[in-house]
Amino acid sequence: MTRTLSASPVSRRALLAGMAGGAAFLAAPLHALAAAAAADPVFRHGVASGDPDATSLVLWTHVASTAPVEVTWEVADRPDFARILKAGTTRTDAGRDYTVKVLAEGLAPGSTLFYRFRLGSAVSPIGRGRTLPVGRVESLGIALASCSNYAFGFFNAYDAIAKDPAIDFVLHTGDYIYEYGGPDGWGETVARTIGRSHQPAHEIVTLSDYRTRHAQYKTDAGAQAMHANHTLLACWDDHESANNPWTGGAQNHQPDTEGDWAQRRAASIQAYYEWMPVREPEWLAAAGRTRMQFWRAYRFGDLALLHTLETRHTARAEQIDYMAYAASIVDDASAERFRTDVLGAPNRPILSPALEGDLEQALAQSVKEGQPWRIVGCPMVIGRVVVPDLSRLGVLPDPFPRLAAARTPQDLAKLAADPHVSLAWRGRWALPDYTDAWGGYPWARERLYDLSRRAGAGDLVFLSGDSHSFWTNALADAAGRPAGIEFGTAGISSPGDFLESGFGADTARKLDRAYADHIPEVKWTDNMHQGYVRVQFGRAQGTAEFVAVDTVLSRDYTTSVIRTDDFRRHGSSVVLAVKDGSGVS
Questions:
Q1: Which residues pair with 62 in a beta bridge?
Q2: Where in this chain does the record put each Phospholipase D N-terminal domain (predicted)?
């Protein structure tokens, strides 16, 4: 996202104890699985596993073929496949874009498994996957990932996740692909310098386009390594279809030139289900669901519930465009009316009633069973990121002299597109930094917090994506009651928003500091890096480590942990630890 007044063309954005097979998992050579990913051209897009439950797991690959074929799959308890546990054949053809996706069932709970595919004499790379544990579980390690833009750089953070021994599962909260392309596409300037221009070489709109883009992303070595080594838990955000979608359209969809939105959305969803290791609706316990109803509940024994959200296609109201209201915001009173009557208007949803019902039931069951942790996989930052008065703080110039000097609508439009002006303008009127995130839907956010409180679960841990920044947030509802905590991840390769908006490194750091110092819910944020968050849950406490890669412009990279936050259970709440030993809820 760029922080302009109008809708932006670019979106902002210890292993499980008690699990069977743990010794084999530790003994398996992590780098060996990563290195084998592109061994055979028939399986040049690698392998993946995902969407597990206690006794089944989705297995995925793609085959290079031009005719229908039968593909064999095998699951073993060791990487040498000396003992095959499950095997079968499945057919693929052009109707599935020659992707192969099977549900391996009848597996042992909490087991580490190895899988591969065969087509004639060709054998795929070996993948390693996990089913969910049951019973007593002492710890859980999750890699939080988001925003992997092929054009902006190599997916080095994925490679680092593949090699991280503390990771049990990968939670990807969306923007797995991006729709932009062509000579004017976002990131193309960088892409040309490193040889990663998007294919097809235009913005993707058709089913063929989306399939080609997914296939390109699956050729990245880091992506193949991550998928080969870890089972994926996924939800989508906007760029899997188009920037900033809602139920009736998208900011980055122009019907006059790009056709019907519903057809484009259907194409994007079909390609997603073909190219990702996610369950088809008929593989779900809940009958009658559609592909669009893409949310999941994962249970990690007696330790944790993780529930993902679908926030784009099943309920979302249209985003508020600041430009449509900017002329009417002239003083504190009019700004308050805008916050209350426009942004805060009732019945502007993000979550569908069906999702809300599933979530409330899952949270209530988790509380009843005494699980310590209730985790929400959230595509967007939910914390109240209300821009501080940056001109008063001396971080940005006062925007009003330039706005007052504008003489034409064109002058105002240029100023609205200037992040220095638009961000300072938002700060003067205490407005959310971005109306596409939860800050643009306060009614929907309160509805979610009320839902969790009714379930007895006002102690949620949100793991969020979209923003291209790292975050540690202490959440509260409108009445000031604690609502949980949030950790947000930077992009895998997508650039930090302040830097990408042209603020410069020094100003970007000052903006990060101003957000942390002057936004009550924000305890720390960083938009200077790419990477992932390593979140580890114990029985009563946990840690979030923010892992940065030093570059995405070369495959040679190093990682560093730039911050560690501790959190813990405190009665019926979850709190962030601070130096004096107390907590911030």
A1: 99
A2: 45-131
